[in-house]
């Protein structure tokens, strides 16, 4: 079945089509959820919520632009909505700190370790870091998505990079001391 036909059948609330769409995109969208969630279980919950939203809003997809991009935007917005409900961004110090360059030696660090330290960031830093660095959103877009100021977005990104840099340096130090 073609993707367009699958989408049309989902618009008619066809359960088999919805199941097929889920099978087709759940692993890609789960990786998006994992990036923005605190842990694996929360990512699973966010994926389910995202698909509920997708099936509710699929009528709005007009076959313009990438369907996968549309799914990803809905998934990211669904996860961010959870954080907005929790008021993660209410208390924020907007002092902009110097941006930190973050260099990652892929040879020395595993993807699992990088994902782990990103997931351990405080929510507001993790969300801004992922949106800016991993998904190429601008600070203006992030500010609109998270209902924060552009300065807050920039500050949170700098703080996220600072924390990640420190964690990576600590990891390298502990690795080199263990190899002695």
TrEMBL record:
One Pfam family cited in the UniProt record for this chain: Sigma70_r2
Domain of life of the source: Bacteria
Keyword Transcription regulation set for record: yes
Any single biological process term in GO: DNA-templated transcription initiation
Keyword annotations from UniProtKB, A to Z: Sigma factor, Transcription, Transcription regulation
SUPFAM superfamilies, A to Z: Sigma2 domain of RNA polymerase sigma factors, Sigma3 and sigma4 domains of RNA polymerase sigma factors
Matches recorded under InterPro entries: RNA_pol_sigma-70-like, RNA_pol_sigma-70_dom, RNA_pol_sigma70_r2, RNA_pol_sigma70_r4_t2, RNA_pol_sigma_r2, RNA_pol_sigma_r3/r4-like, WH-like_DNA-bd_sf
Domain (RNA polymerase sigma factor 70 region 4 type) ranges: 112-162
GO molecular function list: DNA binding; sigma factor activity
Signal peptide residues on this chain, from the entry's feature table: none
Tagged with keyword Transcription: yes
Residues covered by the RNA polymerase sigma-70 region domain: 21-87
Family: Belongs to the sigma-70 factor family. ECF subfamily.
UniProt cross-references to PANTHER family, sorted A to Z: RNA POLYMERASE ECF-TYPE SIGMA FACTO, RNA POLYMERASE SIGMA-70 FACTOR ECF SUBFAMILY
Protein known as: RNA polymerase sigma-70 factor (ECF subfamily)
